[in-house]
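ERR on first pass: missing label on line 2. Operator R.T. fixed the label and resubmitted. Corrected input:
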Amino acid sequence: MSANVPKVRLYVEAALSAGATVTATAAQAHYLGRVLRLRAGDAVRLFNGADGEWRAVIADGGRGRLTLCAERPRRPQRPEPGPWLLFAPVKRAAVDLMAEKATELGAETLWPVVTGRSNASRVGLDRLHAIAVEAAEQCGRLTVPAMRPPVGLAELAAGWPSTRPLVVLDETGGGGRAVDVLAEVAAAAGEAPGVLVGPEGGWSVGELAALTALPSAWRVGLGPRILRAETAAIAALVCWQAVAGDW
Amino acid sequence: MSANVPKVRLYVEAALSAGATVTATAAQAHYLGRVLRLRAGDAVRLFNGADGEWRAVIADGGRGRLTLCAERPRRPQRPEPGPWLLFAPVKRAAVDLMAEKATELGAETLWPVVTGRSNASRVGLDRLHAIAVEAAEQCGRLTVPAMRPPVGLAELAAGWPSTRPLVVLDETGGGGRAVDVLAEVAAAAGEAPGVLVGPEGGWSVGELAALTALPSAWRVGLGPRILRAETAAIAALVCWQAVAGDW
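pass 2 clean. output:
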């Protein structure tokens, strides 16, 4: 990266346009001022998921506040379509890791799905959003993945759109080889798939049968070793991007 | 998994044969007795990387000790060749994650490589071994990845065997598409590759030039987003296993 590209990149909620002034959150002000020791006049990059990426400069907002003043656009906004990650709420550390890595890997949507063997029922969507924001800032995305509220598996299956493939990670050995199946998925459909990963306890027989009865479902296996849920989620997103996505 | 396959799987250092008795470590005894509340007569599975997987039963070793008595073999030992992961020592949490996920993904060897921009020089090999053991227990491997002591990048390059491909993750955009390059690697070589991931600061120009001058080196890119080092390492191992490995 050339020297005149500001290293720091922040997601903001406010609209961005030339001259727009954004008040930094307390966390952003702490990070910029105390951790990085940036000062008024130093440049950063801002994005908000809607207005592209902007070069901005830090200004003293008075009373210890920092404001960020957008100067000029750096990258125009563009759609960032990508796979959806649908995951059973497992342990918190595993869910956090899925949110971070799925963001780096270009996931468009994160969606918890409650299954019969889910070993957790609550998911902190605000925490996941914060993790995704930080990962989006770091990896250069112009959007932050959308967070959907948890849904039951039966409800998900009943309402799943027929136009979007649903790639079910099947740890029972009944799925096809990932690169082959995903190449078929890409050839058959225009939309990136939803990738559905179950809980540590796996799918029940009934769940797997209901899922694979969906016309848009595909079953994928991920090799001979037993992968943790978060590893399986990451691996499936990697395979999609590598085979049919934006890599 | 059928009901008569013991759920618990432990790695031990001792030799395994019919009737062999293994004294559980303090950590294993705590885990079996206090966490899982298993008792004398309960069955577990043991492996040691050399003698295959064995069914064993817990016995009371007296004085609060647990012993594990090997009964009969369950799976014969077989070689588990796989990619090597070579990584610049980055932050501890990232290195820990690489060790765990590389084990799940079938890596044969973990090898820290000190580069010019490495932001850490020490790697706790004992800690990484412990993490790899736990991951191997969980994922069903019969071996634990070998840990090599850290090596400097120049020394690594000078001694790299010409028979083993070296896949260099190139974040500068100079690498080929992962699935294409790895398919070529697999066609050209009999051995699984070493996958080399640099530090967060990237390779220096000289390092990248020296690496790609190696006759067995291949440069791979991993898409348009900036991946953290541990994400890049995991992604490259997934791509190898999916394209040319054991998936």
